[in-house]
Write a structure and sequence with these properties.
254 residues, alpha/beta, Rossmann fold, 10 helices, globular, binds adenosine-5'-triphosphate, binds magnesium ion
Length: 254
């Protein structure tokens, strides 16, 4: 059965870094292939995973809207679009990657979106775990085009506003009646001295389950600056080790 894990949270809190390292830890544990989905219009998950993606699902959909008038004989629009969507999946040994790209522009994309949704559903079934990275903010929550996640990680930094943003997203999920099995807080960039008692108290007051505390890590920041993928981080790296704990807690490697 496929498990879909998704990130959400305030801008710059470490959603993509966490998603990338979860992917790496899963692969280390033999859970592969992982389907990594970048649902951020400003996509950069591929960069952290060391995967080049040159075609987004959004671009494929745009192409289809233009090309659909001249289909190969005998081919339905659905089959044609599905074939084109398939070409957007980048396959590597351990990770397959899909970048959603920008949301559609003007015009009616309903038919294309229906095929896209059905295609995503079917595609996800091929993987034990789908790791979906989202953009900052609340908007994507209300237009979740893909399957509802089994676990939603609300990533906050070690600061008040990050945790408040996570709390707001939780509220929106309830408001929209979205079905998510497990929603929890991940506090990232926690100093070596540990959680500040005020941050801890604020986190507690949200009522959110605290899923993980991830350390501020100089190596993570440096590798990012050097364009090195998360697969190059040493296995004993403190951030990787903490994410391993999160993955175990979510029982993703069972
Ligand atoms: N635990 C950490 N220790 C050190 N640096 C970190 C840590 N987590 C994230 N960073 C750095 O913080 C920056 C932002 O991280 P990241 O891109 O993962 O955040 P994001 O939440 O995905 O941002 P956005 O909202 O723009 O998508 C990056 O430069 C990353 O390397
Ligand atoms: Mg990001």
């Amino acid at each position: 059965m496929t498990r879909v894990i998704a990130t959400a949270g305030k801008g710059g809190t470490g959603k993509t870094t966490t998603a990338a390292v979860i992917t790496r830890v899963l692969i280390d544990a033999g859970k592969r292939p992982v389907l990594a989905v970048d649902a951020d219009a400003n996509a950069n998950l591929g960069e952290l995973l060391g995967i080049d993606v040159d075609k987004t699902l959004g671009a494929v959909r745009e192409d289809f809207m233009v090309e659909r008038a001249g289909l190969p004989p005998g081919m339905t629009k659905e089959a044609f679009l599905e074939m084109k969507l398939m070409s957007a999946v980048v396959e590597t040994d351990d990770v397959d990657m899909l970048v959603m790209g920008r949301p559609e522009g003007q015009g009616c994309y309903c038919a294309a979106n229906n095929v896209l949704r059905a295609y995503m559903e079917k595609l996800q079934e091929n993987y034990p775990v789908v790791m979906m990275d989202n953009e900052a903010g609340l908007e994507h929550i209300s237009r979740m085009t893909t399957r509802k996640p089994d676990a939603l990680l609300l990533v906050a930094d070690h600061a008040r506003r990050g945790i408040e943003a996570a709390h707001r997203i939780r509220g929106l999920i309830d408001e929209l009646g979205l079905q998510v099995n497990r929603v929890g807080l991940v506090i990232n960039r926690v100093p070596a001295s540990g959680l500040d008692p005020r941050v801890e108290e604020l986190a507690r007051s949200t009522g959110l389950e605290l899923l993980a505390v991830l350390p501020e890590d100089e190596e993570v920041a440096r590798y990012d600056l050097d364009h090195r993928s998360v697969f190059e981080l040493p296995a004993g790296n403190a951030f990787v080790t903490a994410v391993r704990g999160l993955v175990e807690d979510l029982q993703l490697t069972d």
